[in-house]
Amino acid sequence: MQVWNLGRLIAPTVAAFILALGLLVPAGAQETSGSNPTAQAVNEQQLLEELNKIQGRVTIPDGKAATLQQPQGRDYRGFHEGALPWIGGIAILGMLLVLALFYFIRGRIRTRAGESGIKILRFNAIERLAHWTTATAFIILAITGLNFVFGKRLLMPLIGPEAFSTWSVWAKYAHDFVSWAFMLGVLVMLVAWVWDNLPDRYDVNWLKVGGGFFDKSNRTHPPAGRFNTGQKLIFWAVVLGGIALSVSGIFMLFPFAFADINGMQTAQYIHAIVGVLMIAVIIAHIYIGTLGMEGAYEAMGSGTVDLNWAKEHHSVWVEKQQAKANAGVPPRTVPAE
Ligand code: HEM
Question: Domain containing 11: what range?
Answer without folding.
Answer: 2-69
